[in-house]
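Ticket 4471: requesting a sanity check on a complex prediction with tryptophan. Repro inputs:
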Amino acid sequence: MASSEPQGAHPEAAQEQQIDPWSVGAATDAEGNALSFDYVKISQKWNTSLVDDALLERFQKVTGHAPHRWMRRGLFFSHRDFDKILDRYEKGEKFFLYTGRGPSSGSMHIGHTIPFEFTKWLQQVFKAPCVIMLTDDEKSMFKDGLSLEAAHDLALDNAKDIISVGFDPKNTFIFSDIEYVGGHILMNAWEFSKTVTFNQVRGAFGFDGSTHTGKIFFPAIQCVAAFATSYPELWSDTPPKDRSKETAKMACLIPMGIDQDPYFRLLRDNSHRMPRPSPKPALIHSKFLTALQGVGGKMSSSDPNSAVFMDDTPNQIKKKINKHAFSGGRETLEDHRKYGGNPDVDVAYQYITYFEDDDEKIAQIATDYRAGKILTGEMKKMCIEMLQEYVAGYQARRKEVTDEVLRAYMTPRRLEPSGSTTLPDRSES
Ligand code: TRP
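Returned structure tokens:
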């Protein structure tokens, strides 16, 4: 709901940030300049918990793994009941991961793959089954001119991209809503929709009397994918014909961008009211990734210069970073050496923090940049090399994802950890 009008001719008033599942806009100052997102503010407004040191310590203690750098560095900054998932893990109780994507055109960019990377890492740490929903139905409902057929094609294409991130083939189920929603999951959606009033969806999403009814029903679909009863066939070789109360008790952890929270507030408010009640799903929220243009910018599938895309060539990556990545460096070499740069707004530095795991190394880079010892060109060079390596690894895996591999992930079947999957490197183990 892009309700807020652009500032247009009268940019005299500063604007609040606005965040919902379909549009995200940074706050602006009185001159209309985009400001950084205020994540503490959104966490307070929506009453989520911040990922704090106590939680990070507990994570380490319970799992035996260092928290992912994206947790340590605040990219995954907020949660609901993540601590309760740790309690369950400690007790050896089974839970599953659920995340998703609204399929969109063309190749994914790093802003899309990073949340999936994080989910994959959680899967490796917890050896947890993972379900991934492709909301081709949602995209077609919310995007004018996108047919269901076209949205479905995009979903299949995006599924191959998601597989290339490296999810455990034995422990991951990917589905397109258009293909899969029927039977148990649809029964859950109808039951769930019976617990949700129009006032609740209006409150969560800002719908009004002229919103078409597809949009009003859709949230039920996205929500009930967090119920284990939506997929009895994933949890046993001899699936029970019916959804069982026992299965309903399996907990769920949902990694997501903070903009998706309104869906899952609705879910958490109503999950205990299902005929087969489920525990409130736990959530972990990420910030938005910085666009090449810097704060307030948005990585956009339709703007090739806003992001590094997963099908970019090494040379395209180099050119993009050199030409478009906002720099916190000074105008001239002399000034930079004398006064130093600002890593906080430097996009190349931000991207390095996404990929370099070593905290001390990161701190050193920031210090040296501030002191003018590292130049903008040098910062960009480090960034380019990291991105080239990341994208090349991904592209090599993408080549292996045939239609057969795709169908294997998309077949409902009993999920179990492969056993062979180990954490990729020392840094994350
Ligand atoms: N609505 C999400 C999108 O447009 C897709 C989605 C479905 C999702 N289920 C999810 C995202 C669970 C995060 C977690 O991208």
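Notes from triage: Residues 21, 98-102, 133, 135, 138, 222, 254, 256, 260 surround tryptophan (CB under 6 Å). Leaving this open until the requester confirms.
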